[in-house]
Amino acid sequence: MPHTTVPTQPLSEVYDIAVIGGGINGVGIAADASGRGLSVFLCEKDDLSSHTSSASSKLIHGGLRYLEHYEFRLVREALAEREVLLAKAPHIVKPMRFVLPHRPHLRPAWMIRAGMFLYDNLGKREKLPASKTIRFGADSPLNSSITRGFEYSDCWVDDARLVVLNAMAARENGAHIHTQTRCVSARRIKGMWHLHLERSDGSLFSIHAKALVNAAGPWVAKFIREDLKLDSAYGIRLIQGSHLIVPKLYEGEHAFILQNEDKRIVFTIPYLEHFTIVGTTDREYQGDPNKVDITEGEMDYVLKVANDHFKKQLSRADVLHTFSGVRPLCNDESDNPSAITRDYTLSLSGGADEAPILSVFGGKLTTYRKLAESAMTQLAPFFKQMKPSWTAKAALPGGEDMTTPEALAAEMTRRFNWLPAAYRQTLGDYLRQPQLALAGRRARSGRPRPASGCRSVHPRGRLPVRPGMGYQHRRHPVAPNQAWPVHYA
């Protein structure tokens, strides 16, 4: 795959901050830092959002189940960030109702009601409706033995797009974003980090940075130990999560949160109008984070949980696609993978005569912005000129004038009705400024082409995109000048 680099100016000799990792935490920190007036360099060995950040359940949520583990601080912060992201990115974050079927032998009703009350009130909730108790009728997609349940609000997000938009925000503030670029080594020399980097074509170059941020995700501890030759204050545990994509299980735009006999939960989430995402799993992972595939046991587990709840029974033949990733969680010595905290830990070392390094352990998609803000707070003593925090009120690229995904879809239909419906949806889903992408282009009945200067990359896996289009590569831009994420057969 060709190397992609997006400099806004020639490489400078010294950056304020160098960030290792192009997942959500890395690009979030790059965006925050560059918006505070710092010069930022970010490198990612593959493509943006190639691993953990694009293998999530695609939810912006407080984490209802974390209440059982008494993680009230994490839930409160995540609920507050849910509101922030609804305002920052209304074009890719949308409200969704979640239905929790009641299974009395697993959790009594009073416990669930108490959890719902806390969920409604722990964090700021301005845009979303409160929880409620519901009853299921004969037309319910659930098994007839399930007659009641609970409903609450959370949000859905295009996770890979969230990463790309943060990289765009960083780039707009002057950051240099380099994909297909691996940090070979980094050493402290005379109060400065000296980084040696290798592009995918084998070419080498070096930069200097006053501070280093290790946001390498599954490789965070390995980077400290093997590339920096330092000791790590924290360990990392890799927990595999796998999802299935199946034909649409039920009508409606709501998700289900299913309780299993092992006290875990599995989501069913509407996806691209004609499909349902079912997942996730939790299992310890000891393999290569570059090559994470669903196991037969995981597939059977997810199918069984779904079949225990729905009238429509699923088999392996119904599985259209699977995707898997590993969550790099801070090792808290928990015996149960599901009980390991999803909170983040920031480890800062250096100072005085030593150049600082900040390493990111753990975290979740919903709290990436707060994590980045906390990271900058820790680095603030090293950058006296750094501007104050700014990301809470700033829209992500493309979200400035759009109020809801529905409003964007209506605008796409009004302005570009000559495009096939599937491409209008794609345009609305992904483009920041569609009028620029389509400027000077005539209406055409054939397949649209990338706008001038567009280069895209394939994320791993093949996703079913639209009925009738079969399995196709979904191409994501890795830089702001790549205007059209085109679907090719």
Provide keyphrases for this structure.
single chain; alpha+beta; D-Amino Acid Oxidase, Chain A, domain 2; 4 domains; 10-stranded mixed β-sheet; 24 strands; 28% strand; FAD/NAD-bd_sf; FAD; G3P_DH_FAD-dep
Considering DSSP H and I runs of 4 or more, what fraction of the residues is helical?
10-25%
Give the tally of structural domains. Answer: 4
Mean pLDDT: 85
Strand content: 25-35%
Number of strands: 24
List low-confidence stretches: 4-10, 432-489
Q: What is the helix tally?
A: 10
Radius of gyration: 22 Å
Task: Give a short account of the largest sheet.
Answer: 10 strands, mixed
CATH topology heading of the largest domain? FAD/NAD(P)-binding domain
What structural class do you assign from the helix and strand content? alpha+beta
Level-2 CATH architecture of the largest domain: 3-Layer(bba) Sandwich
Shape: globular
- What is the CATH superfamily classification of the largest domain? FAD/NAD(P)-binding domain
Gap between N and C termini: 18 Å
Family: Belongs to the FAD-dependent glycerol-3-phosphate dehydrogenase family.
GO molecular function: glycerol-3-phosphate dehydrogenase (quinone) activity
EC number: 1.1.5.3
Domain FAD dependent oxidoreductase: 16-368
